[in-house]
Amino acid sequence: MDAARESHELALLLAGRCRRCAERVPGGTALRGAPCPRCAAPTARTEEDRLAVATLLAARTRVHLDAAIIVVLGATFATSFFPVAASLVLAAGFLWVGAKVVRPALRLLSPRRRVVSAWTIRLAGGAWFAASALVMEVLTLVPAFGSIGKAAISAAQLAIAGVFARGYLASQARREANGLPVRTGEWVAVAGAGLALVLFLALAFLAVAWVLAKIAGLAAALR
Ligand SMILES: [Zn+2]
User: Fold this and answer.
1) Checking phi first, is residue 179 left (phi over 0); if not, alpha (psi -120 to 50) or beta?
2) Within this chain, do residues 57 and 92 fall inside the same structural domain, yes or no?
3) Is residue 113 part of a domain?
4) pTM, entire model
């Protein structure tokens, strides 16, 4: 098989498609080396092939992460005088990483592992983004903190999130390629974190309602 054809077929596998009929194959097909359900063509034949798919995917997402970090660095530097701009730039960076780094990797995972991985990344990424945006907004209030410092911190926050997401997804892809099941602890962690988030939001809502009631009472007393 010539190299161009080989790389074209590999690109199809990385995109979650069959190397022969180019139809979308169910998640986990290539990493587990199962044949295409439509045309029965083999996907990744050997264990070496399966691990190569996982490794190549990691290399490809790395390019997108590096680009996102550089763009966030420049955009934060350029807009650092506007209060909310840094958080918006950071949010765009996180969305980019989600679309170009996380989603392609999730596509190659089997349905159960995809659900656990997607929610782990959503919850961890959401919490990290909230903390990062808070730090950026506080830094905006510190006049001594220059544009370069803000830009560097923002890029570092995105880099940490991206490196975590890539490492985590690479380990999930390796487990998929080795035929290992999703660990019970992973489900427990996702459920626990989800529950904690719901409780936190409920408490925050109650706190806001309580403060508003107090303000209303105060206003009535003053009248
Ligand atoms: Zn096929």
Assistant:
1) left
2) yes
3) yes
4) 0.84
